[in-house]
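Standup notes, structure subgroup. Blocker cleared on the LQESDW3C input:
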Amino acid sequence: MDNVFDYEDIQLIPNKCIVNSRSECDTSIMFGGFKFKLPVVPANMQTIIDESIAINLAENGYFYIMHRFNPETRAEFIKNMHSRKLIASISVGVKEEEYTFIEQLAVEELIPEFITIDIAHGHSNAVINMIKHIKQHLPQSFVIAGNVGTPEAVRELENAGADATKVGIGPGKVCITKIKTGFGTGGWQLAALRWCAKAATKPIIADGGIRTNGDIAKSVRFGASMVMIGSLFAGHEESPGQTVVKDGKMFKEYFGSASEFQKGEKKNVEGKKMYVEHKGSLMDTLVEMEQDLQSSISYAGGSKLESIRTVDYVVVKNSIFNGDKVY
Ligand SMILES: NC(=O)C1=CN([C@@H]2O[C@H](COP(=O)(O)OP(=O)(O)OC[C@H]3O[C@@H](n4cnc5c(N)ncnc54)[C@H](OP(=O)(O)O)[C@@H]3O)[C@@H](O)[C@H]2O)C=CC1
Ligand SMILES: Nc1nc2c(ncn2[C@@H]2O[C@H](COP(=O)(O)O)[C@@H](O)[C@H]2O)c(=O)[nH]1
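Run returned:
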């Protein structure tokens, strides 16, 4: 792979504006047969989403993926979402008990609209076999498989039956995979996204490394249908992480799904725990993301999200922030 770059190395080039107001720009996206307000999904991590956030997101027209770290509650979760006439979107792993869980859902006719296979190294027979198992027992569910970082992996998971693949190994804020293993897309996630998207015949989710709202537009430009975000969603008042006060300032905890804290043991740890600044309500952030993306669309010279996909860009290595802080 030549010419790699990451989010902060890229600037998109504006086209002539065709709208009179940014409010005319439509940020919505069709994904898995449903329409969502934004091409954004909060990460399926324990400090990012819980059941009440999932309900809030679904009720307000946003996509969500519930995490898999309270496995015994998942069937009830699906029932609860469906009783409210909301989509059910869950995560699974690849261990033996997950196979039984999928079979149980089929027997009980509890069919989630979305199932995400959430594994660190998704280019594996373990994930391929789980995709096939889900497709055999729950053929109506839309299967998202990941995480991967190469076109070959995207093609293999798509061929196994995945309806979308999730790209990003190691670019996350609480990720230490890149440090502990030497592998991943950390530092060149945006280029990896482009590389994978070129091979994809189905939607791609860009996962990890989003640090500013402008990175959402850049992800769309380089091939993402959906963008998964952790750290930017960790600091809200409703975020499930603990709130702590340090020197009179409020913070929220944010920990990796492969952290010692999440796993309860120091085995194959590839994540860490950190604290992010407390920042008000989740809905305010989503509204701001929508407004910023509407503005991106207007700079792209269109009125729909699609217009971002074809804009020109320049690579300005590590210089776009010019020493400025983001906020
Ligand atoms: N996006 C990213 O960059 C990363 C994300 N994560 C997140 O951390 C969580 C834990 O992930 P994960 O450890 O996969 O989940 P699990 O701990 O549930 O592992 C799932 C299974 O995959 C096996 N496995 C995991 N990694 C590898 C590997 N590199 N090679 C071979 N087998 C492997 C595990 O076996 P065993 O443990 O015995 O090897 C286990 O049987 C997930 O939520 C994941 O999204 C973690 C790292 C990177
Ligand atoms: N290497 C690890 N990656 C992890 C872990 N827990 C989650 N993740 C990934 O990070 C993104 C969120 O990234 P952010 O930059 O938006 O904060 C998340 O969706 C996972 O793919 C982990 O323990 N190790």
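Discussed briefly. The longest helix spans residues 282-300.
Next: hand off to the docking folks.
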